[in-house]
Amino acid sequence: MASLRCFLRSGKNAMAALQRSGFHSSAPAAVQMMVRDALNQAMDEELERDERVFLLGEEVAQYDGAYKVSRGLWKKYGDQRIIDTPISEMGFTGIAVGAAFAGLRPICEFMTFNFSMQAIDQVINSAAKTCYMSAGFQAVPIVFRGPNGSSAGVAAQHSQCFAAWYAHCPGLKVVSPWNSEDAKGLLKAAIRDDNPVVFMENELMYGVPFEMSEEALSKDFVLPIGKAKIERPGNHVTLVSHSRCVGHCLDAAAVLAKEGIECEVINLRSIRPMDTDAIEASVMKTNHLVTVEGGWPQFGVGAEICAKIMEGPAFNYLDAPVTRVTGVDIPMPYAKILEDNSVPQIKDIIFSIKKTLNV
């Protein structure tokens, strides 16, 4: 045992000596970045790139943000670019929209999209409709961002997914990232867009680390809005999801792969515009479709996908009806056991896939 320890120690010393001499492994170490840090990096880079960009919202400045997404930005850019607001969504959203009319590029943070209901008149009637009503003369380059959907133990008034609500409205782009690359690339695209973008994050994902490619770490990294991504290829069933539920779909796919069922997992990334072509192409390959979302079932994102498939060429390729996995059609309960049974779980996705495949 002593000789083994000496051997291992000498091996470590030799590797350290090689590294000091300039030797490095050919495989670069993967960079892990939490979603909140990816969002922070995106805003930092865009604030630096364009002096018209600024951030405003509750506690975004001196407190570094309620979820620490804006950590360090106030110290770097000051009161003129990172602005703490009163607890008045109606007020500071109106200020942000007016600033966008005047040629600035505001990032308006809601502490949760549930509170955006206080400002829905500004988001819809002022921001979303102005480009059309001005015959294209008045751009409204604004990003509305913050956590959306269910969190943990915060009950009904903090746990609603508004993806379907906002995606219903012409004039808005609606983005729902899952991992760190989504968060950074799509937020940079949203800030640069001349149209209003509703950027829906998820509170439970902020502290989750993901690998970031060398490309994603670049200041030039921007993802196109309106393009989905196949996170896992498969040929038996298509799973379409967005935000946190993408991870649940991947976990379910990993379980089913052990049983010989290969799921193709599509990360929507963008709710409006929706990448219908990617969904149709996958369905034509797998002949089965399951949609997964944390929102309510009625008039939801999954319902829209079902309609698009029914109306398009992929319908003729379906070997079974489309199945939706959604949140339960009730206000979110506070009790944890009820909360867990109110949002999609991995077991629910697996059950629906097997039902769709009749296995």
TrEMBL record:
It catalyses: N(6)-[(R)-lipoyl]-L-lysyl-[protein] + pyruvate + H(+) = N(6)-[(R)-S(8)-acetyldihydrolipoyl]-L-lysyl-[protein] + CO2. One of its GO terms (molecular function) is metal ion binding. Residues 33-208 form the Transketolase-like pyrimidine-binding domain. Signal peptide: none annotated. InterPro entries: PDHB_mito-type, THDP-binding, Transketo_C/PFOR_II, Transketolase-like_Pyr-bd, Transketolase_C. Gene3D superfamilies: 3.40.50.920, 3.40.50.970. It is found in: Mitochondrion. Coiled coil: none annotated. One of its GO terms (cellular component) is mitochondrion. Its cofactor is thiamine diphosphate. NCBIfam families: PRK09212.1 (NF006667), PRK11892.1 (NF008854). The pyruvate dehydrogenase complex catalyzes the overall conversion of pyruvate to acetyl-CoA and CO2. The pyruvate dehydrogenase complex catalyzes the overall conversion of pyruvate to acetyl-CoA and CO(2), and thereby links the glycolytic pathway to the tricarboxylic cycle. Heterotetramer of two PDHA1 and two PDHB subunits. The heterotetramer interacts with DLAT, and is part of the multimeric pyruvate dehydrogenase complex that contains multiple copies of pyruvate dehydrogenase (E1), dihydrolipoamide acetyltransferase (DLAT, E2) and lipoamide dehydrogenase (DLD, E3). These subunits are bound to an inner core composed of about 48 DLAT and 12 PDHX molecules. Interacts with DLAT. This is Pyruvate dehydrogenase E1 component subunit beta. It comes from Neogobius melanostomus.
